[in-house]
Amino acid sequence: MLLQIKDLFKWVNSGGNRIFLLNDIELTVNEGDFISIMGPSGSGKTTLLNVIGMLDDFNEGEYSFLHEPVHKLKEKHRANLYKEYIGFVFQSYHLIDELTVYENIETPLLYKNYKSSERKSLVADMLDRFNIVGKKDLFPTQLSGGQQQIVGIARALISNPKLILADEPTGNLNSKQGEEIMNLFKQLNDEGVTIIQVTHSEKNATYGSRIINLLDGRIINTV
Amino acid sequence: MIRNYFKIAWRNLKKNKVYSFINIFGLSVGMTACFLIFSYVNFELSYDNFHLKKDRIFRVVADIKTPTETINGKGPSWAVPPHITEFPEVAAAVRVLSDIILFKKDNLTFNETESLWADADFFTVFDYKLLKGNPLTVLKEPFSIVLSETSAKKYFGDNDPIGQTILITDDAFPSTVTGIMEDIPVNSQIQGDVVISMTTITKKFAEGVNDQWGNYGPFAYLLLKPDTNAKHLESKFPAFLEKWSGKEMNKSQMFPTLLLEPLKDVYLKSDRGGFVTGNIKNVYVFSIVAMLILLIACMNFINLTTARSSERAKEVGIRKVVGAAKSQLARQFIGESVLICLIAFLLTLVVTSLLLPSFNQLAGKTISQGIFEIPLYILLLFLAATGIGLLAGIYPALILSSFKPTTVLKGRFTTGAKGNFLRKGLVISQFTISIALIIGTIVVYSQMSYMNNRDLGFKKDQILVLDTNSDKNRDVLKQATSSLSNIKNASLSSSVPGTGNLIAYSEIENIKGDLQVANLDLYFVDFDYISLFNIQLAAGRPFSREFKTDTTQAMVLNEAAVKMFGYSSPEQAIGKRFKQWGHEGKIIGVIKDFHFQSLKKPIKPLSMRINPDRGDYLSINISTSNLASTMAAVENQWEKIIPNKPFSYYFLDEFFGRQYKSEEQFGKLFLNFALLAIFLSCLGLLGLASYTTIQRTKEIGIRKIMGASVSSILNLLSRDFLKLVAISFFVATPVSWFFMQEWLMDFAYRTTVSWWVFLAAGVMAMLIALITVGFQAIKVAISNPVDALRTE
Q1: Domain interval for residue B353
Q2: What is the rounded distance in angstroms from the CA atom of residue A2 to the CA atom of residue A7?
Q3: I want to staple B37 with a disulfide (CB 3.0 to 4.6 A). Which of B289, B290, B687, B760 is the partner?
Q4: Among A50, A96, A108, whose Cβ lies nearest the Cβ of B323?
């Protein structure tokens, strides 16, 4: 078991009313899962993903990640936990525009104090693996959306995470590029990486082993 | 890691050229100003530091109590040094007197305007380096001369001057060159090109002057033995004076109290004059101004960086998500600001070396030949630049590194109200400083114009003054020049306004009929003086050739003097008795007060008498038509009558104005720095305005679609900034009013600071700010709203 969420609530107060963003969430994720979270706009998909990624707090409930009780951890510990085990992929890629492809992929290693030689070989592996060696000195704006997303995934994978959280990874891409990305995820999952993705597309959702449908912050069914 | 930071910082700089330019340029302008002022201040503080025994050298001065006032002056400086060595604490005593002496060598004749007479120990007490000659003996014998390197070259070229003869003074006494000294450094309070042995005066020209306790002339310096308590020594001086000059003091009614001024304080802090004098107030004022300008530049930096934070927010978010800790991010942003400061530092070095010559000119002396002259300064500036980078970077770094990734990565992100408040505060501070400096500049300049335009009570235009230096043929010169065409009249006198004057022990009959003792300022004049200078009479009559007795028994007083002796009207003083310097007689006339000293000083009581033997200055009233030919004719006469002296002249109005040279310089420097401050503030405002308008692009687009006009948008965007400037105005006004009142206190006659000065400064700042902001605002206001909305 990778992570487990029990009785989780998240809310905001607006004009005296309590509005639930996440309402009584129960979720267990095992290593090797490929989960798709679906639901209409505002149903809480991204919020749930952020909570799982420990980028966002929640108000009530329990969340344990690799048997660590996340809700009891201090901010710093929590940050260390997600830095160690989680990689993020975004809809709008979120590459640093001022850095080259190579440097973008390298960035997470810098914050983990890898040695220069280790960084070089790890980044080289990644470039090789995704066939982007020839683009390593280009800047993000010089790449197509699909290529940018590949760089984004390479960056998420470089520190060898147990879990990849992807927030609509194909949302800004055309269907062909989207398919490439989804095949890539499938391949990664086959290699043993756990993936949770948020998606609007029924087709993309089918790549996963499980689909969770959200509405108004509630899990309405799991397929 | 560092390389990565550096890389991203550099790419960021290149990407936002305008922003980078404003930041780097603003900072380097601030640092340049600061560096130049620092050099100036440091130079002023460096005066006399090169004397190795500076801590043991003191200048002897005196507060002299007279029946009417206490004069802060030099004291009996002829007699004190030869006698004061009776104290075991005193290692040596040196008198130094500046003079203008005629030098003649073969066919070379120069009026050495920077001549010094000095006692034998001059070169052992002070560290003026002798290149040739023995410091112990060069000034021992009468008629010994030590030349500076420059003047040695002037007279002897490449020949060895030692042992050669130069003829000095009008009477051409043969004197021997005994030594060559390095040119006296600029940062020495004693300045001179040639030094002549004091024994020439004490043994040949004026024997007995060593015992004249009533004679005040040279500056006297003491070298104390190590570990001497100066205050303790000072306390022994009253008994010493009583012993040697008790009789003299009673006779002249002048009671000096001897004081010791540490050499280090003389240049900047003493108000008793000197060869060259500085002003500690200027040092303070400019240090503060430098700090303020640097502060403005740093504020720009902080303002722009935090205002731009929304643009960096995404990067922060990503870095946090991929694993950056807050401290790592903070380090990155601080590193960026240090990088910007270091680039500014390099630019500063370039700009400073380019500006140094004009700054030297502005300061009126060569403060520094080149910036690389003192490597320590460069190192200090480098450290300062790094420090500024750290300090100015901390706040933006903290703001940026504390962004939450979930908020900033959503894409819709605006900077919070917190940063806004700080930015407003900084803009207010900047404009407060700028407005205060503008007000200061206006006040300094209006005081200058007040002094230049005030009616001084005498005619100062079209008067040519020749300094005959007591030449024996001056009467002949007067006759010759006054008979020239285009010259109305001429007059010989001991002083003209602005030159300084004699002070005489006098007894004048007061309102009660007693002879009242007073120290009166004294002008020796001739019969033409009062009419030439157009000095108005208040009562009685001026000196006249028709009265035989006027030459010896007549005195004219000014109104201030008449008041001092208790008369309520000038008429009452006419016919009263006077005794002065061995002459007695009657007051024949009272002249209206005129400013014979600078407007910094109140008009003092003044007496005038006829004395043909004391006419140093020949004043000539010339008409301005054909000025060149008249000047040529006068010079022609001079060369015929006083051929052995170079023609030395000036125009009275210019000469009188020269007394305000330091104020003029102060004003110029002040103006420059005020302009700089407002320029930097506007630079910051420009950057800030451009970012807020970018942030409000969408709002403006919507407003335009709703039908807002260009002017209403202009109003919307400028209003907030103008409000800040208005607040600054209300903060700056009382502060600058207070400081400028203080500054004006130095002037006995001063302009009033009227309300329009403040208003003008406020309106000026407002207009400049409006133009700066309006430029940005109009650009946005006339753009197509559809474009603005499409980008969202």
Answers
A1: 1-47+278-415
A2: 17
A3: B290
A4: A108
Q: What is the ipTM of this complex?
A: 0.81
Query: B325 to chain A: which residues are within 8 Å by CB?
Result: 79, 111
Listed in sequence order, the DSSP H helices in A28-140 are: 45-52, 75-85, 101-111, 116-129
Instruction: Write the CATH number for A30.
Output: 3.40.50.300
Task: Determine which of B8, B19, B322 to mutate to test the interface with A (most A C-beta atoms within 10 Å).
Answer: B322
Residues of B in contact with A98 (CB under 8 A): 8, 11-12, 15, 315
Q: How far apart are CA A64 and CA A57, in angstroms?
A: 13
Contacts of A94 in chain B (CB under 8 A): 314, 317-318, 321, 409
B613 burial via Cβ count (<10 Å: 0-12, 13-18, 19+): exposed
- Number of folded domains that form chain B: 4
Q: List pLDDT tens digits, range B726-784.
A: 999 999 999 999 989 988 888 889 888 888 889 988 998 888 888 888 887 787 777 77
Q: Residue B492: which of B521, B462, B524 has the closest Cα? A: B524
Could you tell me how many CB contacts below 8 A there are between chain A and chain B?
51
Optimal mutation site among A111, A122, A123, interface B, most CBs of chain B within 10 A:
A111
Nearest to B24 by CA among B689, B775, B687: B687
Q: Tell me the chain B residues in contact with residue A167 when contact means C-beta distances shorter than 8 Å.
A: none
pLDDT tens for B454-468 read 899 999 888 999 988
Rg of chain A (C-alpha set): 18
In whole angstroms, give the CA distance from residue B81 to residue B326.
Answer: 71
Residue pLDDT tens, chain A, 223 long? 899 999 999 998 888 888 999 999 999 999 999 999 999 988 999 899 999 998 888 999 999 999 889 888 887 788 888 888 999 998 888 888 888 999 899 988 888 888 889 999 999 999 998 889 999 999 999 999 889 999 999 999 898 899 999 998 988 888 888 898 899 899 999 998 999 999 988 889 999 889 999 999 999 888 7
- For testing contact with chain B, the best of A56, A90, A97, A100 (most B CBs within 10 A): A97
Give bridge partners of residue A196 from the DSSP assignment.
A35, A165
A87: closest chain B residue by CA: B322
Q: Which domain holds residue A48?
A: 3-222
**Domains held by chain A: number:** 1
| B742: three-class secondary structure by DSSP | helix
Q: Which of A55, A103, A155 sits opposite B406 (nearest CB)?
A: A55
A106 in contact with chain B, both atoms CB, cutoff 8 A = yes
In a domain? residue B424? no
A-chain CB neighbours of B4 within 8 Å are 99, 103, 106-107, 110
Residue B458 falls inside a structural domain? no
The reply to whether B760 and B667 lie within a common domain is yes
Strands (E), B106-206: 108-118, 130-132, 144-148, 165-168, 173-181, 194-197
Residues of A in contact with B311 (CB under 8 A): none
Residues of chain A in contact with residue B404, where contact means CB-CB under 8 angstroms, are 55
Considering only alpha carbons, which residue of chain A is nearest residue B15? Answer: A98
Distance CA B403, CA B396 (A): 11
C-alpha dist (Å) from residue A36 to A156, A186, A207, B27, B410: 18, 12, 8, 53, 21
What is the rounded radius of gyration, in angstroms, for the C-alpha atoms of chain B? 34
d(Cα B155, Cα B308) in Å, to the nearest integer? 67
